[in-house]
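Narrative of activities, Objective 1.

The group set out to show that a structural description can be obtained from nothing but a protein's sequence at a throughput compatible with the screening campaign. Below is one input-output pair from the validation batch, recorded exactly as produced.
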Amino acid sequence: MHKIFLLLSGENPTLPQSEVESILNAEGFKYQVLERLTQVLRVETEAECINSINYRSAMTRVCGLELMSPPAEYETILKEARNIDFNRFLKEGQSFVVRVKRVRGSSPNLNGWILEQKLGEIILKRTKGSKVNLKNPDKTFFGILTDERFIFGLKLAEIRPKAFLERGPRRRLFFHPTAMPAKLARCMVNLAQPKGDDIVLDPFCGTGSLLLEAGLMGYKVLGIDVKRYMIEGCMRNLLKFGVHPLCLIVGDARRLPIGSEVDCVVTDPPYGLSATTLGLKPKNLYEEFLYEVTDRIKRGNRICLAAPKRLGVSEIGEEAGLRHIESHFIYVHKRLTREIAIFKRE
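Output recorded for this entry:
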């Protein structure tokens, strides 16, 4: 077991941390949360989990092996750094760089550049034959100033958002204004905790945002939509990125046209002016869908869905017989705050 730190995306206060924990649970890693800080999660777990987080996560930026986590004070930081055996991480002749990230203006009394320089000097003195390389180092030591703390360690992985931008709604062959951004879609799939060769169902698949992310992670995907042109567009989008669905079906999510249970459900039902609700009020559509889907998901597994906060979807889900695990809220504009709700079938 190792202490791991994760620098998280700052676009939502709760989603990134929940995504990390969902990945750890889905992949079967034992872990203990040590501390939740602003845009930083500290956990004790197996170092191998970094590979899973790096592969799956949308809202993690940096993963690292923690070496110290002192208060954000020059003397304390440098004193603790002098007690670290950096030879464990740098072989003779290897190069390194020290980088410091400040979260939301934390510890303005500390100069990040000076901190990088001082820590670099300590590492040079305490290692054999190492050298600094600012552009292409063999190893990167990474520090984060947050909540008057300094979390410091060896960077093991960095997740860049460019790939999600390249799969954005306007980069696909078929576009619709209701399409979900790739990063949020990936996060929602993770919150549903699929694993192994699970089948992921989206009963309102639309342009395929959620199915695309689930498919790229290696899961079997099954989509349903009431509009044929949406199913045709969804197929074009999936195939463009190399995802081959089990099946895409023109059908009504209130009467699911599938003959067996699925492993998990991830979906974003229609609720706005740009999406059809079959003439139903959004609340009625959610009610009918949740009552239908409750018996179609395997016991112990999860449903993750998006809804306007005003609908109270957590209560609707519990009335349908599901257990509400948690919800996260995303402000879109003054008329819409989106709720990302996670349920479990007991």
